[in-house]
Write a sequence for this structure.
């Protein structure tokens, strides 16, 4: 290897290097057959990304076969987990990613960086404890260490279920959460500024925020929300789409507040939160731009809306049972499955949310109009988007006419 190649790590005989005149990281190894040092560009200048790509490169080079329980390398298990579950190709050729793929990406990179060429048999408790201390030495809090461990645990279990490894070793956890940072919550003036800024510049983020604040749903559940999940007659929203497997992170059934009802009148859209008529996979970047434009702290994320309203409900004396119901923090029993049909289902929480928005005193709120297919501005198709944005400040709802035009409806605005 040339002296000008700077090493940044090693995995199963492959080195992560960077050449003096190249901004990109390389995978470098010694080829026994040709007796030469070979390099392959990893196509990235980011060290963490390069570590992930090196592990992927090594896994592709390695021969995957029916090995004994102590032989498979962890790096190979992690890469197969990534391509087989976290970020896989569907039957139609489209890329399918789990909601936590970004978290999994960095967690697997940390596992690979520390464990190197270790095998599944090397996952002893002592070595796992050393891994935990290594993560903490890098400044990681206990909560983050626990998430990193959970990703490795999931990868090992996935490989075992697929019979790629003979057994699934026990992966420890870090139960202590005392060093976890307090969840960031927004004040009424901050929420007011956020909503007005979104309404003026990014209507799709406005309706996203309104749904999140009125349902306490997680961001991915808000983005998944479609008319099929909304029962306007019973005033209920099932945050779990039909056909989606219910996971530990419950997506509950929640009531429709009076505040949110006008935003859910659209029946001809694929999702309520769309951009140029198309569903959105993530609002992280757009929301960060909104936060900056509203003059809020950069730490504000979409999750802060959920934490803000959960705290607000408790401050207003809403029973903890109802708050848990909104958050999906409890598994409903047989009797509770029928509770959603009760007229007073989560009624305290619903009233508290409406009271909160009344106190916000947002002007020009849309009214409920029985016109059938009413479409909020954030849900317009690409053909109607420009016209709708121009009329957004004076027209509360619109009715689709044919395919290409809109007919404005101008009711008396509530004060």
């Amino acid at each position: 290897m040339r002296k000008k190649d700077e090493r940044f790590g090693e995995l199963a005989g492959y080195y992560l290097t960077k050449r003096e005149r190249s901004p990109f990281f390389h995978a470098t190894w010694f080829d026994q057959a040709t007796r030469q040092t070979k390099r392959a560009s990893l196509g990235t200048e980011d060290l963490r990304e390069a570590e992930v790509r090196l592990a992927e490169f090594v896994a592709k080079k390695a021969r995957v076969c029916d090995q004994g329980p102590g032989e498979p390398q962890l790096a190979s298990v992690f890469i197969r987990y990534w391509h087989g579950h976290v970020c896989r190709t569907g039957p139609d050729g489209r890329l399918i990613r789990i909601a936590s793929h970004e978290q999994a990406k960095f967690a697997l990179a940390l596992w690979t960086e520390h464990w190197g060429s270790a095998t599944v048999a090397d996952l002893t408790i002592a070595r796992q404890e050393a891994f935990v201390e290594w993560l903490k030495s890098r400044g990681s809090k206990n909560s983050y260490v626990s998430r990193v461990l959970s990703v490795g645990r999931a990868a090992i279990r996935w490989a075992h279920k697929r019979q790629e490894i003979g057994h699934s070793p026990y992966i420890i956890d870090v139960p202590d959460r005392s060093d976890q940072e307090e969840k960031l919550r927004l004040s009424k003036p901050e929420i007011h500024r956020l909503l007005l800024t979104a309404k003026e510049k990014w209507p799709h983020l406005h309706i996203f925020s309104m749904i999140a604040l009125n349902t306490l749903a997680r961001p991915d559940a808000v983005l998944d929300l479609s008319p099929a999940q909304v029962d306007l007659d019973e005033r209920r929203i099932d945050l779990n789409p039909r056909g989606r497997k219910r996971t530990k992170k419950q997506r509950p059934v929640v009531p429709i507040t009076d505040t949110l009802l006008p935003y859910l009148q659209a029946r001809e859209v694929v999702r309520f939160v769309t951009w140029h008529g198309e569903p959105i996979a993530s609002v992280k970047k757009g929301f960060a731009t909104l936060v900056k434009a509203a003059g809020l702290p950069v730490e504000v994320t979409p999750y802060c809306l959920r934490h803000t309203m959960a705290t607000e409900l408790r401050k207003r004396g809403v029973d903890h049972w109802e708050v848990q119901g909104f958050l999906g923090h409890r598994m409903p029993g047989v009797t509770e499955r029928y509770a959603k049909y009760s007229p007073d289902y989560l009624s305290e929480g619903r009233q508290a949310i409406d009271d909160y928005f009344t106190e916000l005193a947002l002007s020009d709120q849309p009214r409920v109009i029985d016109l059938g297919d009413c479409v909020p501005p954030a849900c317009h198709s690409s053909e109607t988007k420009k016209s709708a944005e121009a009329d957004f400040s004076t027209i509360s709802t619109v009715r689709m006419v044919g395919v290409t035009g809109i007919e404005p409806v101008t009711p008396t605005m509530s004060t």
Observations:
- The mean pLDDT is 79.
- The chain has three domains: 1-61, 62-181, 188-364.
- The chain has 13 helices and 14 strands.
